[in-house]
Specification:
This protein has one domain. It starts with a helix and ends in a 13-residue tail after the last helix. The chain is an all-alpha fold and about 300 residues long. It is globular, with a radius of gyration of 19 Å. It is about 75% helix and about 0% strand. The C terminus is likely disordered. It is built from twelve helices and no strands.
Length: about 300
């Protein structure tokens, strides 16, 4: 049991680094490509790669009738709701404000999992989540926040994206445990693409790509291969071996990792507040991982 958990934590560390790179490279694609066509190309490309991997590994992708509603819901969340709400929210709000909203993901996951009876987390896990949220807030607030009225709608859209990712994280866990990491991810992405194709394909066919830079295409390739195929695979892999809340709280390490990578590759300055906030964040993440379920808590179901 210890080895699968250790591998799950390694997968989450890798996924955190990949997500940090997403904010650095992916921003070029986000800046130059329209959200609908960007999502269509991002998840369409990922779906093709995932299907090829499943074919190579002879993964069973047959769908049972009772799984259809779950796959439709997960597909909508992962392909449309989360990315589109985030992209449109980013256009109306500020990066600093959005960065402060995403650390709410583990809070949402704890609440959803608790309401569904999937987790009864120990108070230490709640303490860890709160500490990690406080740490992230500390060094992100230093970057400056805007409380202008026109940003509020954008913040609400991003909050919807956070809720969507929390729902995906919580509700995909039984599917991952039942079907396996690769099959669960492939089925969810393909289900979402089937539903999204009429809108996404139309937007892509009518888009003007004549002035899109090579850096933006590189960013799109990163989003497809590393963010979705590799990063989402690692996320689902961890979901099959840890509580959903343990997986979600690791996302609070992403702003720390992003700032460190930005300092290395683009010369972003590391401040004292970042160091203090980073230490608090990582301490909170560690406590959340060590804090288990309450006595008598039920195990995660597989169906």
């Amino acid at each position: 049991m210890a080895k699968p958990k250790a591998l799950a934590y390694l997968a989450l560390v890798a996924q955190t680094l990949i997500s940090a790179g997403t904010y650095i490279l992916g921003k070029y694609a986000v800046a130059e490509l329209e959200p609908l066509s960007l999502c269509f190309m991002r998840f369409g490309g990922a779906a093709l790669i995932l299907l090829a991997l499943c074919a190579l590994k002879s993964v069973d992708l047959s769908v049972k009738k009772e799984e259809l509603s779950q796959l439709v819901g997960l597909g909508v969340l992962v392909v449309a709701a989360d990315p589109l709400l985030f992209l449109y929210g980013l256009r109306l709000s500020t990066p600093a404000q959005i960065s402060l909203l995403y650390p709410l993901t583990p809070v949402f996951v704890l609440i959803i999992a608790g309401l569904r009876g999937l987790e009864r987390p120990h108070w230490l896990r709640w303490l860890g989540v709160v500490l990690s949220l406080a740490g992230v807030s500390l060094f992100l607030t230093e970057r400056g926040l805007s409380y202008q009225t026109e940003h509020l709608f954008g913040d609400l859209l991003v909050l919807g994206a956070v809720a969507s990712w929390a729902l995906y994280t919580t509700f995909s866990k039984p599917l991952v445990e039942r079907r396996g990491t690769l099959a669960a991810l492939t089925l969810a992405v393909c289900a979402g693409m089937i539903l999204f194709t009429p809108v996404g394909l139309t937007a892509t066919l009518t888009a003007d790509f004549s002035e899109v830079s090579p850096l933006a295409w590189l960013g799109l390739a990163y989003l497809i291969v590393l963010t979705v195929v590799v990063g989402y695979f690692f996320w689902n892999y961890a979901l099959g071996r840890l509580d959903a809340s343990q997986v979600a709280v690791m996302a609070n390490g992403q702003p720390v990792a992003t700032t460190i990578l930005a300092a290395i590759f683009v010369g972003e300055q590391i401040t004292l507040w970042f160091v203090i906030g980073g230490v608090i964040t990582l301490t909170g993440v560690t406590i959340a991982q060590l804090g288990g379920r309450k006595r008598g808590a039920v195990a995660q179901p597989v169906a």
